[in-house]
Amino acid sequence: MRHLSFCLAPLMVLNASPAYADSAHVGSEHIKGQWARDDGRSRVEISRCGDDWCAVNLWIKPGTKDEKAGDVLIMTLKPEGDKSLSGSAYDPQRKLTYSIRIKTGAEVMTTEGCFLGLFCRSVQWSRL
């Protein structure tokens, strides 16, 4: 699986009703901001893009394959507890959709993404 700058792995895009989108917006603001991947390979910025969230590569460590600054991951998320979100992520560069789960603390975020429900990966992030 390619290291999606956000390394969230494959997801399925969810269709949200307006009420669903409003509740997801309120419950997911804690992911907003800039994050550094724990292995030092990338930095991303997560922000709103319409009813969804976008993770944009700000910086990629030189020599990292299949990633570049400016790559985007579009996430459709719903709250799954106080600081947890789940849903899907679409990678327009690869035209792949992944399932995703995100857990955040005050300064730490863990992303877990799966492709086809078989290939999963977890990545730790630190808030910048």
Give a topology summary.
Layout: H1 18-27, E1 33-37, E2 42-49, E3 52-60, E4 72-79, E5 84-91, E6 96-104, E7 108-115, E8 119-127
Antiparallel strand pairs: 1-2, 1-8, 2-3, 3-4, 4-5, 5-6, 6-7, 7-8
- Oligomer class: single chain
In percent, how helical is the residue content? under 10%
Q: Give the count of structural domains.
A: 1
CATH class: Mainly Beta
Broad shape: globular
Structural class comes to mainly beta
Return the string of H and E elements. Answer: HEEEEEEEE
Query: Which percent band covers the strand fraction?
Result: over 45%
Compute the number of helices.
Answer: 1
CATH topology: Lipocalin
Measured between the Cα atoms of the first and last residue, the distance is: 26 Å
**What's the alpha carbon Rg, rounded to whole Å?**
13 Å
> Uncertain spans, ≥5 residues at pLDDT below 50?
1-26
Your description of this structure?
By secondary structure, this protein is mainly beta. It has one domain (18-127): Lipocalin, CATH 2.40.128.520. It is built from 1 helix and 8 strands. The protein has one helix spanning 18-27; strands at 33-37, 42-49, 52-60, 72-79, 84-91, 96-104, 108-115, 119-127. The protein has an 8-stranded antiparallel beta barrel. A hairpin with a 4-residue loop joins strand 5 and strand 6. It is globular. Residues 1-26 have low confidence and may be disordered.
Keywords:
128 residues, mainly beta, Lipocalin, 8-stranded antiparallel β-barrel, 50% strand, disordered N terminus
Short note summarizing the structure:
With 128 residues, the protein is mainly beta. It is 8% helix and 50% strand.
